[in-house]
Write a structure and sequence with these properties.
The complex is a heterodimer. Helices cover 0% and strands 57% of the residues of chain A. Chain A is mainly beta. In chain B, strand 7 and strand 8 form a beta hairpin. The chains are: A mainly beta, B mainly beta.
């Protein structure tokens, strides 16, 4: 099955810094999503982005499907950005997602 | 709208006991999912239901059963709990799987410990 790898595993930032999180996947995908899990465990969908670029406020994501990777950009980070960021992908049209192991982000004031 | 709700929030079982985790969504979504999250391993799909009346195995279905009771509710049953099933369980739903703009919405999770 498809393999999803994320890097870096851990990231510590000062408030206001920018960061880039990477997701590599081993097969062509029809479905790729980024999620944020906050320190209380709640999972929130950030982007549905099997290809192209999307932006939502300080967050943006780019997926280069032909090269099998996706990037999540966080600009001007805030302490509320802390948590774990997951990339999840599926080669099929249905949302049978395979999750990566996540990037744990800590933003300090 | 409450979104996706799960009960209970916490549960402790002894090995061999059975229990059912409940999930309900009020967004009129077609598809529902059960995941487990173990430390350092991300989320893994246990079972999913593409639509009311259908269920299918995910990545790690052994030791579990599911029921799609109606469009709103999707339950996960552990018939004989084992310590390896200690995990956090998440339920999720999505409106139109396969649609270009579909996303999954998650419940708050159930933290299960099997002694």
């Amino acid at each position: 099955g498809i393999q999803v790898e994320q890097s870096p595993p851990d990231l510590i930032l000062q408030e206001g810094a920018n960061s880039t999180l990477r997701c590599n996947f081993s097969d062509s995908v029809n479905n790729l999503q980024w999620f944020h899990q906050n320190p209380w465990g709640q999972l929130i969908n950030l982007f549905y982005i099997p290809s192209g670029t999307k932006q939502n406020g300080r967050l943006s994501a780019t997926t280069v499907a032909t090269e099998r990777y996706s990037l999540l950009y966080i600009s001007s980070s805030q302490t509320t950005d802390s948590g774990v960021y997951f990339c999840a992908a599926s080669p099929g049209s249905f949302q049978k997602l395979v999750f990566g192991t996540g990037t744990r982000l800590l933003v300090s004031p | 709208n409450a979104g996706v709700t799960q009960t209970p929030k916490f549960q402790v079982l002894k090995t061999g006991q059975s229990m059912t985790l409940q999930c309900a969504q009020d967004m009129n979504h077609n598809s529902m999912y059960w995941y487990r999250q173990d430390p350092g391993m991300g989320l893994r799909l246990i079972y999913y239901s593409a639509s009311e009346g259908t269920t299918d195995k995910g990545e790690v279905p052994n030791g579990y059963n599911v029921s799609r009771l109606n469009k709103r509710e999707f339950s996960l049953r552990l018939e004989s709990a084992a310590p390896s099933q200690t995990s956090v369980y998440f339920c999720a739903s999505s409106a139109n799987p396969g649609a270009r703009t579909d996303t999954q919405y998650f419940g708050p999770g159930t933290r299960l410990t099997v002694l």
